From TrEMBL:
Coiled coil: none annotated. Residues 240-399 form the O-methyltransferase C-terminal domain. This is O-methyltransferase. Transmembrane segments: none annotated. Pfam families: Methyltransf_2 (PF00891). PROSITE patterns: SAM_OMT_II. GO terms for biological process: methylation. It comes from the Eukaryota.
């Protein structure tokens, strides 16, 4: 008997797993999946439901493979090379605030939207009709625009609006200039020489400093980061539940670059014996205490500290970095780790909560694409990088052989990893 072709294997996976999901939604009275503006904007089954999430993942991956096979390599690469045009239409929708000119439960004509947005009708129509090919808006009758679930987010979700704005306006030019930057500054580890700085013509000044000069741009950056880090798989619960914090007892935990202390708040609620110091730049820590619930304020303290300089909190049990090390090239990652050394007692833990790149072909293409996209984003913005487990081991080794790297781990459903090292001065000497 002839073996089944890959195409049939894929359609079988899609049929079986889609059925499972459809049945689950029906049995639990959950809405079916739809692009309707009133449909849920997120997959309606909790990320902790491993069975259904696995089925969803299988369908996403199999449909993508089937799609790519059906389109074929030549047509795939032809149109992939033009995919930045998705960004162009999205940028226009964002910039001219088109979503807010369309009623959520009705429709608006191109003439009405043009008047409301100031974008001329001809270009409005071309750009919005392009966005529609990505299911952003629909045209229920000729000349009239209505919302889809995706375009509705550009009305209802301020952080998603910031995310779209940041990516399409600020980051898109950075991507377009990253090869120029690499040609001009080969192998650079300096954030002031990244694609972002070449695109926006402020070479020598890193992205964060430049964005910080403009309050509206900085606010948009903050909102966009909240959108990303509030997304599926980035919830702080994974950190709270993903490490045996209770075993640390009366530990002192230093959250370096901890922003307004939301990680410490989540941990403090669960682990009443722990004490916390949140360190960040002076402007950020000034606002910190106002964000802490009063019942936790005696256990969470704020301190202005530049993480490239010697760590002032001596003999803490945990020095913690979340979303910090991936913003650094190796040169600056090593500098940050070395700055801890004067404060470290034997056995002190250094915990990094960040992405950890998979080894090729060890995770599915959905996850792989997200982390690899993060990695090249770090390149284009800061000449920084995401790292795999070996890269983290090497970073600690380069910083000082007395750091003993213990490895990287994660929990099901989580997109981040916990990397751990201990300070082991005697171990290195023997
Ligand atoms: C990407 S955010 C991460 C914030 C937080 N750890 C989290 O998980 O969301 C980077 C943080 O590092 C802070 N930061 C940047 N440069 C710093 C420096 N030299 N010293 C201390 N904090 C710094 C920023 O103000 C910001 O709060």
């Amino acid at each position: 008997m002839a073996s089944r072709s890959r195409l049939i294997e894929l359609t079988d996976i899609i049929a079986t797993e889609t059925n499972k999901i459809d049945q689950f939604l029906a049995e639990h009275g959950l809405p079916t999946l739809s692009f309707d503006p009133n449909a849920p904007a997120d997959f309606p089954v909790h990320s902790g439901n491993a069975d259904i999430q696995q089925a969803r993942r299988a369908v996403v991956i199999a449909t993508k493979e089937l799609h790519d096979l059906m389109v074929g390599p030549r047509e795939t690469i032809r149109w992939m090379a033009w995919s930045y045009n998705d960004n162009l239409s999205l940028h226009a929708v964002y910039h001219f605030n088109v979503a807010k000119a369309v009623p959520v439960d009705g429709e608006a004509s191109y003439t009405e939207i043009s008047k409301a947005t100031g974008l001329d009708e001809v270009n409005l129509k071309r750009l919005v009709r392009h966005a529609m090919t990505n299911r952003i808006f629909k045209e229920p009758k000729d000349g009239y625009v209505a919302h889809t679930a995706a375009s509705r987010l550009l009305v209802d979700d301020p952080q998603m609006i910031d995310w779209v704005g940041l990516c399409s306006a600020d980051f898109f030019p950075a991507a377009a200039h990253t090869v120029d930057a690499m040609v001009k500054y080969p192998g650079s580890q300096e954030p002031g020489e990244a694609g972002f700085t070449v695109a926006w013509r402020h070479e020598g000044t890193p992205m964060f400093l430049e964005i910080g000069k403009n309050p509206a741009r900085a606010k948009r950056f903050g909102g966009a980061m909240s959108s990303l880090t509030g997304g599926e798989g980035y919830e702080v619960d994974y950190l709270v539940n993903g490490y045996p914090w209770e075993e640390l007892g009366d530990a002192t935990f230093v959250d370096i670059g901890g922003s307004h202390g939301f990680v410490c708040v989540a941990l403090a609620k669960r682990f009443p014996r722990m004490k916390f110091v949140v360190q960040d730049l002076p402007k950020t820590v000034a606002d910190g205490p106002s964000k802490i619930p009063p019942e936790l304020s005696d256990r969470i303290e704020f301190q202005a500290h530049d993480f490239y300089t010697d760590q002032p909190v001596k003999d803490a049990d945990v020095y913690f970095f979340r979303w910090i090390i991936h913003n650094q090239s190796d040169k600056y990652g090593v500098k940050i780790l070395r700055a801890l050394i004067p404060a470290l007692k034997p056995g002190a833990k250094i915990i990094i909560n960040d992405n950890c790149l998979p080894k090729p072909n060890t995770v599915d293409i959905w996850d792989e694409k997200i982390t690899r996209t993060m990695d090249i984003t770090m390149l284009k913005l800061l000449n920084a990088r995401e790292r795999d487990e070996d890269d983290y081991a090497e970073l600690f080794r380069q910083a000082d052989p007395r750091f003993k790297f213990l490895g990287a781990g994660t929990s099901k459903g989580c997109r981040m990893h916990i990397m751990e090292a201990v300070w082991n001065p005697e171990g290195a000497a023997t």
